[in-house]
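Page 42, continued from yesterday. The earlier attempt failed because a stray header line got pasted into the input along with the sequence. Redoing it now with the clean sequence only.
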Amino acid sequence: MKLSTKNSLIGKIADNVGLNNKFHRYQKISIDPNDKALISPVEGKVVHIGNIDNEGVLISKRNKKIRLEELIGKNYNQFAGYRYINFYLSPLNLHFWVTPYDGMFTYTQKNEGQSIFPIYIGLEYLLGINMFSKAIKKNASIGSVFKTEKFPIAMIAVGSLNVNRIHTDYEEMQNYKKGTPCGYFSIGSSMLLCFPNHLKYLIDEGSDVKIGQRILI
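This time it went through. Structure tokens are written below.
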């Protein structure tokens, strides 16, 4: 199932000059298929590790509330009491993402967003002002529910100023091995990874991570 959110004005300009081409290329990543750890689906910075309350409400780094139901529909209740990692992808990072574990996609929800000019998520990290919770509600996103053998996880790709363009490249109800490329952005964005709260962190807030790096076990 190939899905794409609408392109932004800046994204169209980047397409026309060929700037987005390098972001769309999948690259081979090296992982141990027998290792039991979840891997990072993206390359970027871990800007926050937070909680999801018992009503499926995500609490942002600046204590703003975001309802998972708006991002993954009725599946939000599977993630009540979970935790999440917010990864920020700068324009210097690779912009494709991979499956963090063996499993299958069971649900996908595309949200086109409401902004003519997408909100620049990077301002939150550069200036310390609240932008992420606004971007979640205003920018385009694609929420994916991924079922492993033991528990579901969710991956939510959120567009940013230069993008608002997100693509998926997978089929639902089909088994995938850990580390399989399954989508990409066009220049700068964020990824939320929702996971059970019993998993142990192998990374810290502020860490720079690579695609395929061990992050949870």
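Notes: The radius of gyration is 16 Å.
Reminder to self: strip header lines before submitting.
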